[in-house]
Amino acid sequence: MKAFGYVAAKDVTDAVALLAEHGAGAKVLAGGTDLLADLKFAPHHPDIIVDISRLDDLKDIEVADDGLHIGALVTHSEIMRSPVIRDMFPALVEAAYTIGAVQTRNLGTLGGNLVTCVPSMDSGPTLIALEAEVVIAGPGGERRIQLGELFAGPRKTSLKTGELLTDIIIPKANLHKPAAFEKFGLRKGQALALVNAAAAFFVDNGNFKAPRIALGAVAPIVIRAPKAEVYLEGRKITEDAMAEAGRIAATEAEPISDFRASADYRRDLIAVLVKRCLANSHARATTKAKELVL
Amino acid sequence: MTDVTLTVNGQTRSASVPPETTLLVLLREHLNLTGAKLGCDVGDCGACTVIVDGMAVNSCLMLAGQANGRNVTTIEGLATRDRLHPVQKAFEDTGALQCGFCGPGAIMASKALLDDNPNPSVKEIRDALSGSLCRCTGYTKMIDAVQEAASVLRNEATKQLTDART
Predict the structure, then answer these.
(1) pTM metric for this prediction
(2) Can you tell me the ipTM of this complex?
(3) Domain total for chain B?
(4) Which of A53, A55, A103 to mutate to test the interface with B (most CBs of B within 10 A)?
(5) Does chain A have fewer CB atoms within 10 Å around its N or its C terminus?
(6) Measured between beta carbons, which residues in chain A are less than 8 angstroms from residue B2?
């Protein structure tokens, strides 16, 4: 790697001040699993790395009045082990399990995965389907936005100079909302998603209530599938409805063709994965058994 | 320069290194511990795997500064003068390695698994080894080795308990 400066931030305020001071020349180090791999090949190197990996305030998982808070520095391994998350949102555990190998999951953080803004990020779809919000600390104080508003484009966030993602919140209304995540890659281990997807809905008298569908790796950012959601809202829960929602969702994406898969193949995958997510969410909603099998 | 003081294989070590130094380079080039290997250098192959505060990590993806104050175990920290660590012995006995380049990483990934889970299923072993790429011989014998080591370590733990009681 080319030479750069390094400073370990003392707290969030210190990190924000350092980021504001150095502007575009600063890069945040959380887990480092994406940052260091990128820096080894980057033509330009940052002036300074602001290491936030020791900010223990950003490592909590807790249920508060407004919902489930997951600190930006919570690692994928910590998500997999968290009793609260395993109980409330096994879909987040399923997603974390598909990220890299254990070495990556031990260092890589939820916040770090989100701010990479790669369209195939495995943390994105479940949180988007659960309508997560994020807290951003900046020189002028904190602001809270929908997670979807953080994603500005491939590898591009809406964060402004001096801003730091600190917290991810699943709102109170969605606590325990049955949800599921599915990913299809070319291998089981350490593969990028050709398509990943998540679904969440409540069951109301055998009908879909507040269905949310999110898709990854098939558009410049992680997207919702609003037409499929509208189709399902209030509809009787059947396998046919799930399959039709999958077909509709496939028309809402703009997948690319590349060396991993063609656009047509990715569209076919969307239909299958959305159907599976809906079926798995329904199974979670209707059975008492919450045992998570990975 | 970044000043780093950390515990490596039970000993306190210090070094002053350029900020862009990874933990892997710190271990290999500054502390002369060349067991952890430089393979892909981007966190895919696992040849650089060491244990930091009980967790298997790719030392190529961790800055030396991040390891400041932490407890690091490398392959050099496993064997004693008298004997190989049971995981090393099991890899040797089962013929789990051919060229051996992936060995230190695969063995440290296996040790981290067994420290946490004394009786892992084959699926759990495969998952723990999925970040350690072997290009010579395959993974079947590694899985056998981890099961063998798990059994030896469990028996040792039981014996220690029994001895302590008598």
Answers:
(1) 0.96
(2) 0.95
(3) 2
(4) A103
(5) C
(6) 6
